[in-house]
């Protein structure tokens, strides 16, 4: 009997030991449409043995979402957020929580590591009371029957004003384009509204308070959301309908080019912030090369990775059916993953999501050649995600010549228009600056002249 009791005590001690090691903050990232979406879990063990916790996606919002379920048994953990159909099932392996993240039809591997959260200064973030008015709004995308939520900011007093919509970059983004505690779109909206511009920014479909499903949506869908935002903006009493434009960051700038080039909505000007202007597969090759370089890969490793990526992207762009394309990618990856794990297979399958294949097939140049409105286009020389030289050159070569264009690369700025040392995405959260004041001044002055 005493041996049985001893075994039970040791087993319980072992289980408690695993549980205690799970308490605290954990950080990882889920790959969605080629973008890493940061995920943070906070886990707490109560004195009664019950676990509680919450999660936050800092790239989408600073809001903590409580778990509806937290089960810890030995080295295994299961959490859920019932209202959004989210689950994570994992195990503690070598100090990391390794498992599978699921949300409705979306499924991806997720590895979380313990970390200590630090309060980071964001001195540019606007703090109320504001010198202008804001209004939470909802508008409909009638094309897809999706309701979108956002914030309209406008100058006080009578009169008509120039107006813009802000279109976010890749990955699920809220109306402020929140990333690592920075809120660049809130900063931009504040700066412009103080200078007489009406600004509408909104949560992407499936994010924040907006309806719809992000993971199954394509750039075509996001373009229709932007068109709906323009239509809503044009009906506001404060807006001069002859001075309406789009400001798009990164993928949002690509959407602005598509809309302006196809003339699928009435716009009087577009502002492109670090927007891709070359074929997307070429852009992704450059991006992988530049980020790998700052991470310390050798030139030989970079060349090998580039060739493998080039073949993968060609498969992704091809008309091959999903299973056929997947087998081709497995063959291409065999020198790297001769016997891929389930996690590696899941990651490779992400390349074949319909939304990602749609994205990879986009060629911006034909649309750029048809843009007939003034364009403000700026880049940072330390941008590793949209390298400035080939993209600025493509835009300069293909944009029809006319008065009013403003094209410029700013020395030392990264993809978020922060002053930076290397431009690596890992630096974004460590920088206090959210968005360059110089770029903001140039943008506001340019809009004032439209």
Automatic annotation (TrEMBL):
* Protein's UniProt keywords contain Hydrolase: yes
Q: Which GO molecular function annotation, any one, does this entry have?
A: serine-type endopeptidase activity
Q: Where is the signal peptide?
A: 1-21
**Superkingdom to which the source organism belongs:** Bacteria
Q: Which Gene3D superfamilies does the protein's record reference?
A: alpha/beta hydrolase (3.40.50.1820)
Q: Name one GO biological process term.
A: proteolysis
Query: InterPro entries attached here?
Result: AB_hydrolase_Est10 (IPR053145), AB_hydrolase_fold (IPR029058), Hydrolase_4 (IPR022742), Pept_S9_AS (IPR002471)
- Print the keywords alphabetically: Hydrolase, Signal
Domain Serine aminopeptidase S33: from-to ranges? 186-288
Query: Which Pfam families does the record cross-reference, listed alphabetically?
Result: Hydrolase_4 (PF12146)
Q: List the PANTHER family.
A: ESTERASE ESTD
Under which name does UniProt file this protein? Serine aminopeptidase S33 domain-containing protein
List the source organism.
Answer: Sphingobacterium paludis
